[in-house]
Specification:
By secondary structure, the protein is of the alpha+beta class. Helices cover 30% and strands 26% of the residues. It has one domain.
Length: 253
């Protein structure tokens, strides 16, 4: 074997070893964050989520679904839209996600007090909203890093439970579509606000008035199906003027 070939093999195995080390560290961190999350009491979760909501400075226009450690016997995937959401014609109604050959998100007549998806209960957390400096416009903030930077009390509440990875813990709690501590908007379940697109934006138009539709609900496929559709994120759009006009759309990685 030539010295060059030997060098090549050494370099390749060093790279493989480095990658293995990175993977082991990543998994250890992931497990640590998930374990911390599992120990959170309802009171601790409530405190964390209300502190997140308090970082907003103007009225919220939507929610993200956050983890709880509560299970449910509800077998249907039901998401009630909070009644308090202003200027949202679907407030108080319930969306059901059904999975067959396709995924359908539609309004149903059902009683549901909290979002229930595949046996897990979620807590809608208001997305903090701020006025922007440059104009009269307002903007939603989805980033857990920003929440922690904005609130010392939140930082303390998280560090008490997970001293090593407080911000990652918050990411894990607010990105419910994947068992990861990395913040990924397409892994968020959202009510209102704006969609996080997996691919290029596909804004939907109302068939009746030709106006752009609003996001009603975004759900990662992992939350509604045990096997299929795990590479998808699904969106329900509706027209504010014609609330019964809705469209379901899916995008895939
Ligand atoms: Zn319309």
């Amino acid at each position: 074997m030539s010295p060059l070939a030997v060098l090549g093999i050494v370099a390749a195995s060093t790279a493989a070893l480095a990658l293995a080390v990175v993977l082991v560290r990543f998994n250890r961190k992931r497990l640590c964050v998930a374990r911390c999350a599992a120990t959170l009491t309802p009171e601790q979760l409530e405190r964390i989520y209300s502190l997140v909501e308090q970082t907003g400075t103007t009225a919220a226009n939507g929610y993200v679904l956050a983890r709880t450690n509560k299970a449910t016997t509800e077998t249907r995937c039901l998401v009630p839209i909070p009644k308090e959401l202003p200027q949202f014609p679907w407030a108080g109604r319930v969306v059901e996600a059904t999975v067959s050959n396709t995924v359908e998100l539609q309004f149903v007549e059902a009683t549901a007090f909290e979002p229930s998806l595949l046996g897990h209960v979620y807590r809608p957390v208001q997305v903090p909203r701020h006025a922007t400096k440059s104009s009269t416009k307002e903007r939603n903030t989805f980033s857990p890093e920003r929440y922690v930077a904005d609130s010392a009390a939140l930082s303390v509440a998280l560090s008490t439970v997970c001293p090593k990875y407080p911000t990652e813990l918050l990411s894990y709690l607010l990105c419910v579509g994947r068992e990861s501590f990395e913040f990924e908007p397409i892994d968020q379940a959202r009510i209102g606000t704006s969609p996080a697109w997996v691919q290029d934006p596909e804004h939907q138009i109302c068939d009746e008035c030709q106006k752009r539709m609003h996001l009603v609900l975004q759900l990662p496929g992992t939350l509604i199906s045990r096997k299929a559709f795990h590479r998808g994120t699904f969106y329900l759009f509706g027209c504010v003027t014609h609330p019964d006009r809705t469209k379901t759309l899916g995008q895939f990685t």
